[in-house]
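Ticket #4471: structure export looks truncated?
Reporter: QA, pipeline team
Priority: medium

Steps to reproduce: submit the single chain below to the structure queue and open the exported record.
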Amino acid sequence: MKMTAPYGTWPSPITAELAASATPTIDLLMLDESRHQGHQPDHQQGHQQGHQRDRNAEANNTGNTIYWLESRPDEAGRNAIVCQTGNDSPHDVLPAPYSARSRVHEYGGACYIVVNNILYFVAQDDQRVYRLNIAHSANVQVEANAKALPEPITPDNLGYRFADFSYDRHRNRLICVCEQHFNDHQEVHREPKNFIVAIPLNAPDNVPHNAHHQMIELVTGADFYAYPRISLDGSELCWISWNHPAMPWYGTELWRANLDEHGAINTRKHIAGSDTEAIFQPQWSDTGALYFVSDRSQWWNIYRHQSDGAITPICTMTAEFATPLWTLGMSTYAFVGNDKIVSCHTQNGRWHLIIIDINNGKSTPVVNHYTQISALTGDATHAWFVGASGDTSNQLIQLDIASGDCQAMAEPANSRSPASPELDKAMFAQAQQLTYETSGDEIAHAFFYAPLNTAYHAPDRDKPPLIVVCHGGPTGATSAALNLKIQFWTSRGFAVLDINYRGSTGYGRRYRELLDDNWGISDIDDVLMGAKHLLEQGLVDPQQLAIRGGSAGGYTVLAALTFHNLFKAGASYYGIGDLETLARDTHKFESRYLERLIGPYPDGVDIYQARSPINHIDQLTCPTIFFQGLDDNVVPPNQAEAMVSALTSQGLSSSYVPFKGEGHGFRKAENIAYALTRELDFYCEVFDFKLATEII
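Actual output as written to the record:
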């Protein structure tokens, strides 16, 4: 029989520590590029002419090894690289304390590649590319050369950062995006330079073994680059690029270029993309055709560039086959054999998996229960992806193309899955999809989670407190997949409304563009109208409304609290209080982002000032707590510190919780757990909750 206790006071087995570190985040799946391409490079003799890849030779999949990047809060946020062969147990291939992380665009992305059992990765500490012989066979981990350590192959102390690798098997070199930051006193304010480089993998002659390899600059001139990919026969290179003030979900250009016998750019041609068309994930097929995702139809769909120059859609749907390119190397589709594509797409906030016949464009749904799908890769017979559902967090999933069966592969030994027996799935509140009317005769989208605890219920006629969650970006999206940070609240008796306000992705280009010039207006209206929608339904307590969010979502929190009186408390995680300071101080990737969201600066300084909570601090009269990483280069600590100082000077209630060694987004389990605990204590104080003491 359930015990009775007021909402917001229920004990829960979902502790802050479990929510912070239950299961490592899995991303960036890949196969060994040399095996993937049917070619074994000769590193002693240099490059040799490759031959046509035949993935059908991989019909027996038991020997395939899949690699992934695994972020571990329990290891101070270290990014490990893990592999699994067949049904064997996963094991690390990147030894601790090494951590793989790129800081290109600050957010990084694809930070490693495996070629012929050699791991090449970007080290988090110095951003150099290292190589490591990971020494394993198809099914048995080999302990030989156990003392080998990663060795750098790119120069030190020159400000280089690397990401988004591809392998040129014909010339035995890596091709990737490079970003150079200038540290010289005379150039310290110079904007970083972005370009595409080749890194030869043959050891330099007559130099020490650990000397760096000479980089070759291939493509330069644009402000940003992504997806440098070489064709199977080695004759062409493709990439996307964009320039200020665009972000990659507003407008990018797709290029393809011929390479000469030495691998230098010969001639280049603009294929697709413009200021009003965003290209995503160009990729060469086995037959040499160039595929890519474009939103030219107002929805991100897959297209093919024909040999005659024509561009044809492969599968036309009112769905999004892409996500905003916040991090490099994202993948939403993969070739499986010569005539099929396995792809994921999102509709109404939920992800779906399909297999597309390239020849006729027909798609076949893959039946599965995953509501979040990402990081697709594949070969002739199988595909792999990261999947999550309402009661399972990120898992490595293998898809059998012939049968359509999806199977979760073994989890890392050090993970504590929320789906394990220690947590009853009946404890997990499930997302209810909401669409509601908002300002401007528009609609907004959200997921609602009602309070749920298998051991407790509230007294009759009581209504729960509500926490409205604002995702970051603001060009981003929330998901219906299991998130223990949401379950942390619902299992204690809080209702949660997780909002995909206007500007979010997953609902077409028009919905994304509804936030243009209106950041700080439309998103605020959407969170207010979402909370009011629940109030009208009688689902939450009007005196116990809180709002929380991080980064851009933190700005939405502060603006909602400053310019409106609906919410009674707020939690800002590395949020923005001063839009002018952000426009002046942020990093290159986002340095012109606000021109689209708000307007040009400094020409539109009046608008920036009017929408900045810091300039209207006298209107922020409810309790607010601020969480801030002191190493944040995206939203520097001075943002939170200025807000706290202004509130304190007026005698208003606020709390400031800084974290040493954390940047934009907390990575260390102990800090994530501490922040959740402090936030819970904050709400208990504001709403006068006295936590129940019965242990469940």
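Status: closed, not a bug. The export was complete when the record was re-opened. Leaving a note from the reviewer for reference: The radius of gyration is 25 Å.
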